[in-house]
Amino acid sequence: MESSSATAGVSTRREATRQKLYEAAVTLIAEQGFSATTVDEIAERAGVAKGTVYYNFASKSVLFEELLRHGVGLLTTSLREAAESTARAGGGKVDALDAMIRAGLVFIERYPAFTQLYVAELWRTNRAWQSTLMVVRQEAVAVVEGVLREGVENGEFSEEIDVPLTAAALVGMVLVAALDWQSFQPERSLDDVHAALSRLLQGRVSGRRG
Amino acid sequence: MESSSATAGVSTRREATRQKLYEAAVTLIAEQGFSATTVDEIAERAGVAKGTVYYNFASKSVLFEELLRHGVGLLTTSLREAAESTARAGGGKVDALDAMIRAGLVFIERYPAFTQLYVAELWRTNRAWQSTLMVVRQEAVAVVEGVLREGVENGEFSEEIDVPLTAAALVGMVLVAALDWQSFQPERSLDDVHAALSRLLQGRVSGRRG
DNA sequence: CTTTTTGAACTGACTGGTCAGTGCAAAAAT
DNA sequence: ATTTTTGCACTGACCAGTCAGTTCAAAAAG
């Protein structure tokens, strides 16, 4: 019956079960897609009875929605921390962007399945969790947009840049490069990938020096 | 009594039906995903009986695979033409990249649903059409990689760039920016979006001039 | 010509299987 | 003592794929 128990954060047992279900669901859905993944499979992979899934989540869709919220929450936090820590260290906005690229890569390295699933769902329309997705997406992109906007204000970035579009392009750059890294050349190190993206960000691709 | 009519390539009727089915399938699958889209829906939207789908395609998966091949083929052709036409006009590799960005945007503007669906499926594993997808992906990315490699050879690009990774990042930049454009600010013009991406590509974001 | 035949293309009712979600009593954990 | 989990049988909707039958334009026959 408890609704949010006093201090020690909502009954550990339940939370542990939920976590197991998230983990099971995220890989299965990343591999197969939402509709092709059955509740029985999720329960089995989590090592839990089917009834438990429904004891913990109202429906398959709700499980998925909360998974999305949870995952993007982690990403957003991580991006924000990256930006703030460079600010504290007295770095400029370029450093902040660079740190956020790295934070993005670290996130994708740690949660590749979640990233896959997120990308696969992001531009779909007509789906139950569409609005949830829009909200969490905006939270994450807003962090990047914020840094860009501050950079324009303090003169570090050109006033001509299109903040939302550039933010989207940066996110896309990291996302797709990282997914390709994971899928097609997983032996590469994170530093390698980070260096390549840094170079691209700073326009050192068409650079005149060898 | 004819079996495949003399010259005029495989009965027009059949080809027209297939085309209608592609068009119906592409929007539905982009919106809902492969598994959530029923063959009945596809048939209905195409204005055709369900049996006709199976008369023309061996299965739902095969229909989808041929759709993928067809669509990526169009994109690849378009990218190649863009690169070649700048070459013929005596432009450098930066111009080629820029033209390819534009070609990508034009493609996405014309076939937004296909693009959506392609992105959503690209990083999935364990799916029937996985291998098909890898092949067509490589065809498209190879065009970008080719231009980058030539640019490195002729000294226009730094030798330090990581060709496959940079190619993936560029594709991602265009893809995500364009999908965001379509989804969240469709009123923007293609030229606008192109300009923003060009600026990013040429490192004129963190430029020192206002 | 006119009639008949042919066969590719198409139709839609039907089948067999799958799956989300339910119900509930008993067991385990806290 | 209460919350959480289990196990499992059950239901009803839904859906991929099938198949016997229809349509019709063009070819062959008369």
Give your account of this protein's structure:
- Two copies of one chain form a homodimer.
- Chain A is mainly alpha-helical and 210 residues long.
- In chain A, 72% of the residues lie in helices and 0% in strands.
- Chain A is built from nine helices and no strands.
- Chain A has helices at residues 12-32, 39-46, 50-56, 60-88, 93-110, 112-122, 130-153, 163-184, 190-201.
- The termini of chain A are far apart.
- Residues 1-9 of chain A have low confidence and may be disordered.
- At the A-B interface, helix 1, helix 6, helix 8 and helix 9 of A face helix 1, helix 6, helix 8 and helix 9 of B.
- Chain B binds a DNA duplex (30 and 30 nucleotides) through residues 1-3, 11, 13-14, 17, 38-40, 48-56, 59-60.
